[in-house]
Amino acid sequence: MSWSTSTIIIALMVILSSFLTRAIPFVVFSKKHEHPYIEYLGNVLPFASIGLLIIDCMKHTNILITPYGTPELFAILTIVALHFWKNNSLLSIVGGTSIYMICVQYIF
Amino acid sequence: MEFQTHVETLKESFPYTIPVFTGFVFLGIAYGVLMQSKGFDIFFITLFSLLAYAGSAQFIVIGLFALNVDFIYVFILTFIVNARHIFYGISMLKKFKDTGKLKYYLIFAMSDESFSIIHTAKIKKDINEKLFMFYITFLNHIYWIVGSLLGAVLGTLITFNTEGLEFVLTALFIVILLDAWKDKINRKPAIIGIFCSVLCLTIFGVQNYMIIAMILIVIILTIFKKNILKEKGIY
Hints:
- The complex is a heterodimer of chains A (108) and B (235).
- With 108 residues, chain A is mainly α.
- Chain A folds into two domains: 1-57, no CATH class; 60-108, no CATH class.
- Chain A is built from four helices and no strands.
- In chain A, α3 (70-86) packs antiparallel against α4.
- The two termini of chain A are 39 Å apart.
- In chain B, α7 runs antiparallel to α8.
- Chain B has helices at residues 3-37, 42-52, 55-66, 71-82, 84-92, 102-108, 112-120, 129-154, 167-181, 187-223, 225-232.
- Classes of the chains: A mainly alpha (108), B mainly alpha (235).
């Protein structure tokens, strides 16, 4: 069913909407990037966005049912501890992900 | 630009993208396998990953290809899923301003991961920033395409237990947040982002929370503008 008209149109819709979300700010604000309010948003949105992304990554974690988000908690604690100890990004990421995999595969 | 400059920038960029490599190749394979099982050919899968390059939206529409859905519905749904890119664009207006022709590609191939890395990486002074942004974006894009292609080709041959490997991208974002945390000025926006997301997720649920959370984030950031700028000490 790869190349039927309807799959192609659906694929084009996804491509177009994804592209628009990326391009809109550059079209709308192309000459306004020095406007203080837009500049302010440009400065603070990144960190708010990363907060949003972290929550979005874990949106399917339900802390009300077993395992109550324990794998996520252990993994995050590992990342924080490793990062403050060694300050090596890759080590923190590998450590946290390993703990998470061990938790979901063998413990919970 | 000289060949040597490219090699050096590539060397500087690659380590930043290693976690993304792991996450995208893994998720890309998962995507390719799924799409292949629904009857899509390798060419379609690879081309779609190259042009859409929108992980979550691509996963969501897998189920919609088979149904006779309204095209406008697909457009709106994927627009909402990807709406967070609007935030990235606003944050990148200045950085992309003088990137010339590269700008079109940088905008087209923006992703959560490339954005987070570009915005927070502290690159060496002698590295060309434009080229650095290009290579981060390009490498991540390639990982997703190659992952999808591998999944489409290998199909179900992969049997290694990868449950939980997707956490590598969550871990990347957490590390980026921890690095940003060292600068006091970033803390309030980060807390506002987390707080609004958790609040909206609890109230509106997984399907509907993101756009509302984004609006709430902008409102709260606007209300606390003076307070946050005072922290920066430059206004």
